[in-house]
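Researcher: Let's run the pair from yesterday's discussion. Sequence first, then tokens, for each.
Model: Starting with the first of the pair.
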Amino acid sequence: MNSSIIQLKEIAQKSTKTIIGLMSGTSLDGLDIALCEVQGAGQSTEVTLKKFITKLYTAQNKKRLNAISSINETSMEEVCLLHSWLGNYHGKLVNEALREWDIAPSDIDCIASHGQTIYHLPKIQHRQEGMPNSTLQIGDSDHIARTTGILTIGDFRQKHTAAGGEGAPMVSFVDRLLYTHHTENRVLLNIGGIANFTYLPARNNNQSETITTDTGPGNTLIDMATQQYFAKEYDKDGAIAKRGTVNRKALNALKADPYFKKPLPKTTGPELFNLTWVDRLLYKAGVADIDPENLVATLSRLTAETITDSIKKVLDEQQPAIYISGGGIHNPVVYNWITELLPSCSTSSFENIGFNPDAKEAVIFAILANETLSGKGFSLDANNPDSPTINFGKISFPT
């Protein structure tokens, strides 16, 4: 038997694994690296976050990735080059983190790499007859495996689209496995570049169904406006939004986009929600000359209202507890508006039921990798236990 297959079998048979989860979101700010201890598989899965760090991208590297991300036309030469380059780069960042933590690569059973999404294209966006849902991530897992010497699992979203899904959000498979409560209805809200949530009815709630969906822009439009008009990476502590005033006419024009009227679940990305989209709708509504501070405030309110509008669609008489993760948890303006718009729900950090909310998505992929290695896979339909199961990810050997 091939020695790599023997190694794979030995890792898969471990009752406890040390797995590094990697996540780089649409904000392109850096690579989240989560060192996890994962026990068991399936319903017996338990995870402990041992270490976490975000390795920030340099301005030059962020510029290179921005040049090929979420745009209709780009250089195929750059896409090809950066697919391999980013795999090497992520591998080097993992090696750097391990040195800082004084942990040997041989102590790691595998790496779970999300990659960098450069284009997300579900059917509801491309609307081309006969064409499937599609999504594309770069950061080749073979390069990560070779650079680190660690077995790597990547391309998680591809299996979802191959099975008929939209390739996002992926969190639901782990959310329902680990965080469904016996008596508490929960919403696990992640505010990244794009916002998404998983609604988890309590086990004793037979009236509601699990649902996972994107809601629309999370941080992406706020970040883009802040970068363009204030030369800052993001609106730290919501300071710019606090100085501004929400322009209700502009907000209504943005909320009139057909995406927000589409039924749940649905996915989206910066391919739709970008400043070109904002400029087009505001020009059409006659508010193109909005003050930059007011624009940031309006986009922040857009995030809060579209999140809460979507959550309200799944609420029943038993109001859920909302646990928030992702970068948006650090924006008090958005956070407070969400709380105000959902007064019957308790709102708090995901840390109250899990771990560091910034690490959640990286940990998600570590658990997906663990299930690929040792589990029976995830049911495609959370509300139908008899639906087909799938395992996520492609395995890259270091040799």
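Model: Moving on to the second of the pair.
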Amino acid sequence: MEGTFGLVLNIIITIYLVVDSKKYGKSPVLWGILGFVFGAIALGIYLIKTDRKVIGWIVTILSIIGYIIFMILVGLAILLAIAGFA
């Protein structure tokens, strides 16, 4: 379920970047690929580059914080699996 949500979110971000990048003279193929692979971070950088800096920085910072929290949780899960639950 969580993987499906992330995939759907990346597809929505990709569609937005492809459609919106044409308005600003940016490459839709490049931003589509970046949006699909990097998701919210690419969206934040795109917003910054198209002079929507405040919302761009907010999206970028929140997505980086989310990725850091995710990596910490995965690290803790691996640590618990290795050390055991005792």
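Researcher: Give me one sentence on the second I can quote.
Model: The helical segments are 2-23, 28-38, 40-49, 53-83.
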